[in-house]
Prior knowledge:
alpha+beta; Aminopeptidase
Amino acid sequence: MITYQVEKNLSVAEFTEVLINSTLAERRPIQEPERIAKMLEYGNLIITARLDGKLIGVARTLTDFLYCGYLSDLAVDDAFQKQGIGKELIRRTKLEIPRAKLILLAAPKAVGYYPKIGMTKHEHCYFLDDVNELK
């Protein structure tokens, strides 16, 4: 049986492993464990999915718990995808922040997934990687 819980002390090794076993490792700094550690430290809402103790999914959110929550990482081990685990991680994340709007940027391979589970697309998202790009 899969168990879901809020975790405050997820290890760098476990988080990195689930990133590798999902599609997120391509876009995360898995070669920089100190950066991964800070991602976990400052992600103030982490929900995990475990099967017999093994981490198979994680939702890492940065939130103020009342207005907004940025779901920065949603990773489910490839071997366990298409079983509703990602949707359940999102559901449990939203239950922890019921008054906040849950926001995410879809990974390229997951763009079609979010509308299927009932999330609304927003057309006005912008990002900045390098401060020198400001004009």
